Amino acid sequence: MILLDYHNVIIKNTLETRFKKEKVEPVDMTVADFDGVTYHISTPESKSVILISLGWACTQELFAHGAQEVLKREYGNMLLDTPEHGYDVTLSIDTEQVPTEVEDRDEFIRKVSLLKRNMLAAPFERAFAEQEQCEKEEKTEINSELMAVHYRKEEAIYVKSNFDRITVIFSTTFKDETDKIFGKVFLQEFVDARRRVPALQNAPQVLCSIREPPMELRHLNLKDSDDVSYVTFVLFPSHFARGDVREETISRIQIFRDYLHYHIKCSKAYMHTRMRARVRDFLKVLNRAKPEIQNAEKKTARTYKALIPVITQILLNCRSSPFKKPADFCLFTPLHPMSTLKQLLKHKPQITLALLKPDICANAALPPKIRQAIEAKNLEIVEERNVLWTEQQAGEFYAEHQGKFFYHRLCGYMTSGPFKAMILASPNAIKDWRALIGPTHPVR
Fold it and tell me: What residues does the Nucleoside diphosphate kinase-like domain cover (predicted)?
């Protein structure tokens, strides 16, 4: 499992790109972040001055817990006394005063992108300071305030200091039934992992309860529902020692809720992938389990003379076989009566009848490319004409295919418009024409 970034990636990438460009352009962006946070990045007055504003529903609660002092400490003169209209905090960045050294500039950009994190760090820093003061005075009791931050709708973070520990409580709501199941598994794993894994003995203690709030919150008027779960982290002095350890603890505990829901969604996606894979495997098993039909006729591409006209349909091989049926010649009557066609067979080495499908000859003319291909094969066009069939004529012509799955589609296709009918002649007319048009089976 991965850990989410503490900073806002869009702000970081936007500033990095802007500081690298020699020619800057005006910017006006609205960016959404976790927990309902909204950023506004703009250059309203000057291209060299960037305003980054933050709007958050719990800002006033954070200010009551010392967020204003934390922001002044971190951002100094960049923090405006009067924020942009519609937002709670605004930083003003003069690009001409940004550090020129790469490392210093990267650190500056990262600090700006941690605006939300630094605001939410205020109650934690206050609780740590209270615990240190109590420890310094060697008190065994502390009358500290329960700091509540309602950072999401129906969800909150509660921080309370004690003489030997800091208690952080998350109230989280699972509205989806599937999320409740996954969430319960995840939260129980947080509780059990510390007991099972020796390497986690120094990790903060984790407690979880569903519906029933922990002792520190029972005096509050909280929502009584099975949708609400409470996760308690108990931090000891070793977890918030001054320096990088303290900063890392604050950063990590802030993203717990996002971390939890992110991995619930990943788990659901993984389960869906597994289920789809299992269904595919079952379908393969079912397909292999189909019994073979005894004495069934096995058909191949050569079984059918032609199923659906791909480019053309060869219907008559005159010289090499007797006349197929009178319907084969109805295409050319009355221009050529039967006797005339019989005479034609005596003077031509071999002829074949070819049809070009309706969409090829939409303008009633033989396309030049097809005519050139016919001439390249030394095929002589003895006769050609445009034909428009009725459904009855098409049914009579393709009567041999009646009852097959393609019959109605074939008849409907050939009656959709006029098509070109031709008599072609050459010493090997049948073979040459078949080689020219390629396979007539729809699969091939």
Answer: 349-444
